[in-house]
From TrEMBL:
The name this protein goes by in its record: Dehydrogenase
Family affiliation: Belongs to the HIBADH-related family.
Membrane-spanning segments: none
Keyword Oxidoreductase included in the entry's annotation: yes
Taxonomy, superkingdom: Bacteria
GO MF, one example: oxidoreductase activity
InterPro entries in the record: 6PGD_dom2 (IPR013328), 6PGDH_NADP-bd (IPR006115), HIBADH-related (IPR015815), HIBADH-related_NP60_sf (IPR051265), NAD(P)-bd_dom_sf (IPR036291), RedAm-like_C (IPR048666)
Length: 289
């Protein structure tokens, strides 16, 4: 947290696991909090701590200049806020969604009178309010700056630009890296467990190896930005040669090779197109459609 906020009125719409964590953090920071949830029973724990219950999204929006919404999907957001007058409000939407959805809701909210800020939460509910949590923001910069001290209660605040879809783009890109990593981790555990090696015994070496390899990310980024893909580390032709060692072993050990089978045509094409001496950064160019 970089700043502390003067108490202000805030409404939170959506009290799922994440919305409840956001709301509880705002209450702890001393804000006057109004809460709304489709299933009204979920407001109980928060109203017991001093939050004010709203009977409808309209009532919640009317109660505060800063309105934070965190529902399952952006379709839910559009539905919950449909037809409401948002004049003078700042709408901060922390629902996971696509850049296109963020742009669309921004356009609608602006027409309805609001300043719109889209956000991507880089934390699980238990991290909210801790230094490990941060939220990406994009959209109306003036509104963001005005409310940043309040938003800082959730953790770090990272501004990524006035284009409303930019926070969702960063959010999805970061989560893409995470899902890819966890898919690899799951595949690795499946392979090691095929001979009954305890997962706990393998966890340390796996974490150590992945952490060491992540050190290559900045050099990869430089190669991508400069389009200098030649490598003296680990080229694509060599990676193509060893790929069957993985897929053959998966099959032999009764592990689904599907994840790695996606890699084969990419590596084949890279080598066929004369990029065998390039490093993994070349795959970024090949993935772009
Ligand atoms: N939980 C997490 O770890 C991740 C971390 C990163 C950000 N995500 C995104 O946050 C959004 C909310 O996630 P959540 O964890 O709070 O999700 P749930 O606990 O499932 O709560 C969902 C809330 O949405 C309400 N809701 C659903 N459909 C509707 C609807 N048609 N109209 C109004 N509200 C709706 C639901 O209400 P109810 O079921 O209690 O009545 C909850 O309040 C999400 O985008 C994550 O991707 C979380």
């Amino acid at each position: 947290k970089t700043t502390s906020a003067a108490p202000t009125d805030v409404s939170v719409l959506g009290l799922g696991l994440m919305g409840s964590a956001l709301a509880a953090t705002l209450l702890s920071a001393g804000h006057r909090l109004t809460v709304w949830n489709r299933t009204a029973a979920k407001t109980g724990p928060l109203t017991a701590q001093g939050a004010l219950p709203a009977a409808s999204p309209a009532e919640a929006v009317a109660a505060s200049p800063l309105v934070i919404v965190c529902l399952s999907t952006n379709d839910n957001v559009t539905e919950a806020l449909a037809g409401l007058d948002l004049t003078g409000k700042t709408l901060v939407n922390l629902t996971n969604g696509t850049p296109e959805q963020a742009r669309s809701i921004s356009g609608w909210a602006t027409k309805a009178g609001a300043a719109y800020v889209d956000g991507g939460i880089m934390a699980v509910p238990q991290m909210i309010g801790s230094p490990a949590a941060y939220v990406l923001y994009s959209g109306d910069e003036e509104a963001y700056e005005a409310h940043r001290p309040t938003l800082a209660a959730f953790g770090g605040t990272r501004w990524v630009g006035t284009e409303p879809g930019r926070a969702a783009l960063h959010d999805l890109a970061l989560l893409t890296g995470m899902y890819g990593m966890f898919l690899g981790v799951a595949q690795a555990f499946a392979l090691i467990r095929s001979e009954s090696v305890p997962a706990t015994e393998f966890a340390g070496p796996l974490q150590e190896w992945i952490t060491a390899m992540l050190g290559a990310v900045p050099d990869l980024a430089t190669a991508i930005d400069t389009e200098q893909h030649l490598t003296d580390v680990s080229n694509l032709a060599m990676n193509r040669e060893v790929l069957p060692n993985f897929t053959d072993t998966f099959r032999a050990q009764g592990v689904d090779p599907g994840f790695f089978l996606l890699l084969a045509p990419l590596l084949d094409r890279a080598v066929e197109e004369g990029h065998g001496a390039d490093g993994l950064s070349r795959l970024v160019m090949m993935l772009k459609q």
